[in-house]
Amino acid sequence: MSSHGPAIPMTARKSGPLKGTAHVPGDKSISHRSLILGALAVGETRISGLLEGQDVLDTAAAMRAFGADVVEEGGGHWRVHGVGIGGFSEPEDVIDYGNSGTGVRLVMGAMATTAITATFTGDASLRKRPMGRITDPLALFGTRAYGRAGGRLPMTLVGAADPVPVRYTLPMASAQVKSAVLLAGLNARGETVVIEPEATRDHTERMLTGFGAEISVEPLAEERVITLVGQPELRPQVIAVPRDPSSAAFPVCAALIVEGSDVLVPNIGLNPTRAGLYETLREMGADLTLENERVEGGEPVADLRARFSPDMQGIEVPPERAPSMIDEYPILSVVAANATGKTVMRGVKELRVKESDRIDAMARGLEACGVIIEEDEDTLIVHGMGAGGVPGGATAEARLDHRIAMSFMCCGMAAKKPVKIDDSGPIATSFPIFEPLMAGLGAQLVRSNS
Ligand code: S3P
Fold first, then answer.
1. Ligand 1 centroid, distance to 417 Cα (angstroms)
2. What's the pTM?
């Protein structure tokens, strides 16, 4: 879906205390991969806890368009009848991937080594995002791509009829690019090797192993070498999707900055390649505890408990931690604005090519709320104003970016004056229950122009 209809402005007022239990939705990364790998397996994959946000629904629609049978059974339960590796059929129409960079990039990889042609488009945000980072490695398999200037959507991919396996060193830390190459490698005879200079989220590797592919990961001193043997038969799986640490970040961080709060966020996936935010928050002095730590479905899981933390200090976030918290910098910058001292986030230039330029979106919105910001191409620095110290009283642009919208809503819950966003519609891409969930904890959110 390329548009969510008319803009829905939303205002957050000083709230709290936030109290209670927040059951956040399923993990977005694992949800996309469950549908795609289910579609590439032979037989029926059963999924529970699937994120039913628009991004993932667009992947369900894409898998149907490529010939898989995807059935929603209600309550987060889904069934996928896969067509097997190389079994995708040619979609009859353009695939509209809405807002989802992850969805479109993974699916481009998944179809790239089957001799079919598919055309992809998306919303105004997705049509600005670079696809060359995907089509460059896919070209090594023999896939051809015809897109707009700068490798932008709409774009047509002609899958390689006789794909050759590739050896590819990632030029940037991107799990999407890594995963697209691995998914393409599934239908290339021989070994496809991806070399990651920095570790990124490893759900694709873990899930491919679960589906029965032969895949090995060699962590060398400076890099990870991932080797996949092509043309396996993927066995269908029963998948319980853990809850999303990137969505949990919003109730957790809101609780840390809203006076008197105490919030429990259960069953959160804490794969180390995703958990950088929680390490950072603890270094800042957040009252954040992990309870009931366990392993479920091959992923580490815990219950998070966050309490109001009036004494958080700004820190230097180590740049090497960026891949493990890449989606969390917007909400971290809101926490940083409520801490004392400077928080320095370096090595974050990938934020500029997300659903929006997230450095610019956070910098402009926080400045409008009265926070002093410094930035350069690869850095964001937030000058903290102490607990409850952000003046607010401003409107921030959501820029078709769910995480920007939710970050400013959390900002408004702790600011002196209300904070408004011009459009809360994009929140539905990853966290469709954000508004009732936060309101249930005590947040004051209103859809309005006031
Ligand atoms: C994702 C990878 C990240 C992340 C995105 C989800 C994934 O993107 O920002 O929300 O599921 O692989 P990059 O791989 O471009 O860093």
1. 33
2. 0.97
